[in-house]
Design brief:
Elements (H helix, E strand, L loop, with lengths): L19 E4 H21 L9 E4 L5 E4 L2 H8 L4 H16 L4 H21 L3 H18 L6 E2 L6 H7 L1 H5 L6 H13 L42 E4 L19 H6 L2 H16 L4 E4 L5 H9 L3 E4 L3 H11 L10 E4 L3 H15 L5 H11 L2 H9 L4 H13 L5 E3 L8 E3 H4 L2 E3 H20 L2 E4 L12 H9 L1
Parallel strand pairs: 5-6, 6-7
Antiparallel strand pairs: 1-12, 2-3, 4-8, 8-11, 9-10
């Protein structure tokens, strides 16, 4: 008869055999921080025009030689749960802005590196998190003041090409002038809007070419024809907000029944009236149209059109010259580390005015911004400390637009606005916000619990094995 060996008392005895758990600063927090630092260090050397390439071979044995952080992360398939949070923040940056993925990784890694120093100094996790959140809010307040210029006409090929140079330079340094012209021209020409529509009931002689858009649909409301239309296009349903949870309402008399939906009706009328007050007389919706919204649209003489296809919505927007407002931000900030140094300078000053222990976290948050110009300098073979000292000295004199001269052979600085090295305000805004949220999320984790991996045969990991299985 085998002896039963009891499990050690504590949390471990509640888990299945083979499960692992880690808790506390040393086992959980510092372990997570170390994983995120290693990931940030991997992509940090690929930051900027002089960044190094990475050779990545994915699970299908496909070779990638690139310095694009989004491609590297997509093919690496990171498994560590804490590092995955940083990867998710980078993916969100790519979806929201389309650029600045490496900025999120480098900045989040620097934040966690400085957070580790603060924790070893004796600060609690809550004090570090509170300081980081305060500093993040202050940075987002300061950022609009650092805007150095704005785009005047986003449909001008020459102007758009000049604004694209910084983004293209980080991938194809030296060829940015030629490539940006091609990219701007490609963005201006959109041949996919050419379509044919077949209407039954007549012959071939009734065919015609219409310089506009044709949809084989009827309007939703009573208004079927509008001249000199002003069109508002929405990709969302034309309906009111609905809560995720279901509620039960007890109605005691007829008056309560009459007044039950009156607030919803008033809110819907205000929304439809606000659209009509702008001068729009045609509303195109990418989702369902509520009956109540249809009633008030007829009341204010609005034509309602429902398009279920997102491709039709895009073609319509291109045809009528509509611009996606949520993505439109013409503001630009100086690049080359100028914005980061100015933010570091102002947030350090803000930290000195805070009386609590979170002032140390605020100052470390400001110091984390130095990781961006430091990465640019190190990847260019320049002494980073010398460059950062020069940048601080120039910014103390009030020159907010001065950044690192990437073309110089020494730690030289120059005006980024005059050099045309500009970054988007939107990219910096979301980069700071997402990196801070990811770092704070990692710091909030004080315990790691991993269940025992499931048994059974593992799936094939390589393309060759798949080919062999198919050939058999």
């Amino acid at each position: 008869m085998a002896l039963h060996v009891p499990k050690a008392p504590g949390f471990a005895q509640m888990l299945k055999e083979g499960a692992k758990h880690y808790s506390g600063l040393e086992e959980a927090v510092f372990r997570n921080i170390q994983a995120c630092k290693e990931l940030a260090q991997t992509t940090r050397t690929a930051y900027g025009p002089n960044g190094m390439n990475k050779m990545v071979i994915n699970h299908l044995e496909k070779l990638f030689v690139t310095n694009d952080a989004a491609t590297i992360l997509r093919e690496l398939e990171v498994q560590h749960p804490a590092a995955k949070m940083i990867v998710m923040a980078s993916h969100m940056q790519e979806q929201e802005v389309g650029d600045g993925t490496n900025f999120v990784l480098v900045f989040a890694g620097a934040l966690l590196e400085h957070a580790e120093e603060l924790l070893r100094m004796g600060l609690s996790v809550s004090e570090v998190i509170e300081g980081y959140e305060k500093a993040c809010r202050k940075a987002l307040e300061i950022l609009p003041d650092l805007v150095c210029c704005s785009a005047k006409n986003l449909r001008d090929v020459g102007e758009v090409a000049s604004l694209l140079q910084t983004s293209v330079m980080s991938k194809q340094c030296g060829s940015e002038s030629f490539l940006t012209q091609l990219i701007a021209q490609a963005c201006d020409v959109y041949l996919c809007i050419i379509r044919s529509a077949i209407l039954h009931g007549s012959g071939i002689n009734a065919s015609t070419v219409l310089h506009g858009m044709v949809f084989k649909k009827e309007t939703e409301g009573d208004i079927t024809s509008v001249k000199d239309a002003k069109i508002a296009v929405y990709s969302c349903p034309f309906d009111g907000m609905i809560t995720e949870t279901k509620g039960t309402v007890l109605i005691k008399n007829a008056e309560e029944l009459m007044n039950f939906s009156k607030g919803e009706e008033n809110l819907m009328e205000l929304q439809v009236k606000a659209i009509a007050d702008t001068g729009a007389n045609v509303v195109v919706s990418g989702g369902k149209v509520a009956d109540m919204a249809l009633h008030y649209a007829n009341k204010y003489n609005l034509m309602l059109i429902r398009l279920n296809s997102k491709w039709d919505l895009r073609r319509l927007c291109k045809t009528v010259g509509a611009t996606a407002l949520p993505r439109l931000d013409k503001r630009l900030v100086p690049g080359g580390g100028a914005t980061e140094i100015e933010l570091a300078k102002q947030i350090t000053s803000y930290g000195e005015t805070c009386p609590g222990l979170d002032q140390y976290a605020i100052k470390k948050f400001a110091e984390a911004f130095e990781a961006i110009p430091r990465a640019l300098a190190e990847n260019s073979g320049i002494k980073a400390n010398e460059l950062i000292s020069k940048l601080y000295a120039v910014h103390q004199e009030g020159n907010k637009n001065v950044g690192f001269d990437i073309e110089a052979e020494t730690a030289a600085v120059k005006d980024m606005l005059e050099a045309g090295v500009l970054d988007t305000h939107l990219g910096k805004y979301w980069g700071i916000k997402l990196a801070t949220n990811a770092a704070v999320t990692v710091l909030r984790v004080d315990q790691i619990i991993m269940a025992k991996p499931a048994g059974g045969p593992k799936p094939p990991s390589g393309k060759k094995e798949l080919d062999d299985d198919q050939s058999d």
